Amino acid sequence: MLFCSPDPLSAAEPRYIADLPNIHEYELFANNGWTGNWYVGYDHCWIVKLPAVKEIKKFNKAFLGVKLGRAKTAKQLETALQAEIDGQKKKLEGASPSEKENLLAEIEELKKKKESAENLRVYISVSDDADFSDNKKHIAAFNSEIPLEGDYNEALNNVGSGRWFWKEVPLSSISADKENFVAVWSDNGLFTSASYAPVIAAGWSAKDKYAYLSTDNFGKAPENLEKKISFFTPALCIKLVPENKKELKVEIKKAGINEGILRVCADVKGVPERLRLRIFRGKEEIPTGYGISAPPWCLTIYKLEKGRYSFYLDAEDYFGNRSESAKKTFAVE
């Protein structure tokens, strides 16, 4: 377990505190191939134990981070759940009265899960005693912004490798004299397998001292450390940011809509770590994926339905500084 920064004694750059010395070492599971069953979910809460931060007063902001990937679209989730419902309905034929009762209960449960396929969230929290029940949970990411898992039967946009998601938390929530436990989970009952849930990235680790998996929290904040993990360690991190005067500004340079395709280019001052296009139809936000992290600063969104929309650009840099452009409106006829 190491402090990952160019100079651990300096507070000129953000400091990353993780189980591995380099956060780029978390390359497993969240990209492609074998998932290892490392999904983040209702019954899969991942926890790491990180050291106290004695130099906390050198920093101005604190962030909790998790690297996630292989999310599924709402359409994919609904299709998979409907296939399960249809399969259970077929079993009703010839089933005994008691079996029918159980099958009907399972069908109703699947229907409830299907209704909850929108606005799925992953939560993150930090605690100094591994009991998160009294600590404030934070939304680490919405399922709709996590890079998607590829589909062999459908061409999809926003498919990509796992990405880090950072959530600012009060600096006071990071302990200077006790260990810091970071946990990530979901409160949605749909996320009970890697077939439905996003996957957390992992790195190789020969130790089994600092990483844990809780399977008995059932959507709630965990209250204890259940199982130690061997061989791998989850991509969870604390990022501490010093006071800085880095400039970050984003403006809409040009935008155009053609046959339901919106293309927007930005004029950026500074170096964004992430640039997102946020689109709304009324109060409803349209999923646009993770965004981009390298120039040219141009984003494209496909298949917008007829209606009136508003949009703006949202940028965040390495230091956690944020900037938003002015909002603009357009219509798809």
Shape: flat
Number of strands: 22
Strand content: 35-45%
Class of secondary structure makeup: mainly beta
Topology pattern, helix = H, strand = E: EEEEHHEEEEEEEEEEEEEEEEEE
**Helical residue percent band:** 10-25%
Gap between N and C termini, in Å? 55 Å
The tally of helices reads 2
Radius of gyration: 21 Å
Spans where pLDDT lies below 50 across 5 or more residues: none
Largest sheet: 6 strands, antiparallel
Overview of this protein structure:
The structure is a single chain. This protein is mostly beta strands. The chain has two domains: 2-74 and 118-241; 249-332, Immunoglobulin-like (Sandwich). Helices cover 11% and strands 37% of the residues. It contains two helices and 22 strands. It has helices at residues 74-91, 97-115; strands at residues 2-4, 15-18, 45-50, 61-69, 121-127, 138-142, 163-169, 180-185, 199-200, 202-204, 211-214, 227-228, 232-234, 236-241, 249-258, 261-269, 272-281, 284-286, 298-301, 307-317, 322-324, 328-332. α1 (74-91) packs antiparallel against α2.
